[in-house]
Design brief:
Its EC number is 2.4.1.143. There is one protein chain. The protein is an alpha/beta fold and 438 residues long. It has two domains: 2-69, no CATH class; 81-435, Spore Coat Polysaccharide Biosynthesis Protein SpsA, Chain A, CATH 3.90.550. It has helices at residues 2-39, 41-50, 55-63, 81-90, 118-129, 148-155, 192-195, 210-228, 253-267, 305-312, 315-320, 326-334, 417-435; strands at 109-114, 138-143, 161-166, 240-244, 247-249, 273-275, 291-295, 301-303, 343-346, 352-354, 395-397. Helix 5 (118-129) runs parallel beside helix 6 (148-155) and helix 8 (210-228) packs parallel to helix 13 (417-435). The longest helix is centred in the first third of the chain and has 38 residues, at 2-39. It is globular, with a radius of gyration of 26 Å. Mean pLDDT is 83; it is low at 1-15, 35-72, 359-369 and 433-438.
């Protein structure tokens, strides 16, 4: 009995010791994991950020080695003081937080990307000020570099939260070297072997024009920055609306867009986006009693993070296509690579119009601005002031439409290997910085 009692006592003691050791081990592991997670909080952020996506999209990201920014070796141009100052501005919080302290739960972020056409910008800003619901959301204005006149217009906005971001690698920020103009650069159709100049010509034998390539660079930098780089939006899972400085926005645009986003999974589950305007920029809509599904347009288009991830995975296709236009690049090579039609859903009456008559980098001056008689004559009827989309409408699908498609070679202007590499670096810059703890 004594022996048995001693054995039982010994066993209980061992059990207690084992329990204590187990508790100590669990506590140590808990502390270790807590420290690890605090030091690598970007992991939590990344998991949260992409939990909204489908399993398929997450698997592709892992297979493509994008997750946690494991693609390294960025070779961005060495920044000057001007470029660094723009980066600092990009980290500033939105203005008007005292007037609009909270965003609506279902808000659609609006991104307005601009160059240097102040007369255009005044018109789009004025139209936005009249949009119903604009005070519920965040307006991000993305500048292709820094221009004081454009900056002052945006600083005068009081109708919503507004944040400015400035492309720090814009050509005019680098006046003496790439991505601006370098003294050793080839020009026009120079033979780089004979002239011993720097540059790779496009498919038509033309060398890069910094003012032209900045269009595509700015769009791509902006997309990567808004979706993956800004504190205010990198956790945003809903749609983001993209407009330009020569788009007039109707008063009902925001409410109509909210309706389209809500109807899209029910009425057009295969649609990638929601648009405020027809893909034909000259059209004002059909005026039907139905929704319309067609190819993605470039006026007032919106999509969510899942679609952005699909676009981002096509960075190599986007950056290597020889066309300086971002939209033509998307239509001719990125969208066709998705493996099926890329439809967008819109209403039968436009809620945004393109009023610019000049291309990029034209119309900057007050007298030379490309607007009829210095003003924009956009007819805004009563139907354009209130939501005019009905939830019981059917969807008419345009199965075949004119426009740029797979197989189009591009208009050129994007042949320089330096531009292509900078473009790829933009696609990876936020992933690389996160993995390095920057």
């Amino acid at each position: 009995m004594l022996y048995r009692h001693m054995v039982l006592t010994y066993r209980k003691s061992r059990v207690k010791d084992a329990d204590v050791r187990r508790l100590v081990l669990i506590a140590v592991l808990g502390v270790f994991l807590l420290v690890l997670l605090l030091r690598t909080n970007t992991i939590i952020e990344l998991v949260t950020r992409y939990s909204y996506e489908t399993n398929e999209s997450l698997e592709v990201r892992i297979n493509d080695n994008y997750t946690l920014g494991v693609k390294m070796g960025l070779n961005l141009p060495k920044q000057n003081e001007f470029s660094i100052s723009l980066e600092r501005r990009n980290r500033m919080p939105p203005r008007n937080l005292d007037l609009y302290p909270k965003l609506a739960k279902d808000h659609v972020v609006i991104v307005l990307y601009v160059h240097n056409r102040p007369q255009y910008l005044r018109i789009v800003v004025d139209s936005l000020s009249r949009v119903s619901g604009i005070g519920e959301t965040l307006l991000i204005v993305s500048h292709d570099g820094f221009f004081e006149g454009m900056n002052k217009i945006v600083e005068g906005i009081k109708f919503c939260q507004v944040k400015q971001i400035f492309a720090p690698y814009s050509p005019h920020v680098f006046p003496n070297g790439f991505p601006g103009v370098s003294p050793s650069d080839c020009k026009e159709k120079d033979d780089h072997v004979k002239m011993k100049c720097e540059g790779t010509p496009d498919q038509y034998g033309n060398h890069r024009s910094p003012k032209i390539v900045s269009l595509k660079h700015h769009w791509w930098w902006m997309m990567n920055t808004v979706w993956d780089g800004l504190k205010e939006t990198k956790g945003h899972f809903g749609h983001i609306l993209f407009i330009e400085e020569d788009h007039f926005i109707y008063p009902n645009a925001y409410r109509n867009l909210q309706l389209l986003i809500d109807l899209k999974p029910k009425k057009c589950p295969d649609c990638y986006a929601a648009n405020l305007a027809p893909s034909d920029v000259k059209s004002r809509g059909e005026g039907w009693e139905s929704l319309v599904a067609e190819r993605m347009g470039n006026v007032g288009y919106s999509f969510n993070r899942t679609v952005w991830r699909k676009i981002h995975r096509k960075a190599r296709e986007f950056c290597s296509f020889d066309d300086y236009n971002w939209d033509i690049t998307m239509w001719a090579t990125v969208y066709p690579s998705f493996g099926g039609p890329v439809y967008t859903l819109r209403g039968p009456r436009t809620s945004a119009v393109h009023f610019g008559k000049c291309g990029l980098h034209q119309g900057q001056g007050e007298k030379s601005a490309c607007i009829d008689n210095g003003v924009v004559n956009v007819e805004v009827g009563d139907a354009d002031k209130v939501p005019n989309i009905k939830s019981d409408w059917e969807v008419y699908v345009y199965n075949r439409q004119d426009g740029y498609k797979a197989g189009f070679r591009g208009w050129g202007g994007w042949g320089d290997i330096r531009d292509r590499q900078l473009c790829l670096n933009f696609a990876n810059m936020y992933w690389a910085s996160e993995s390095q703890g920057v």
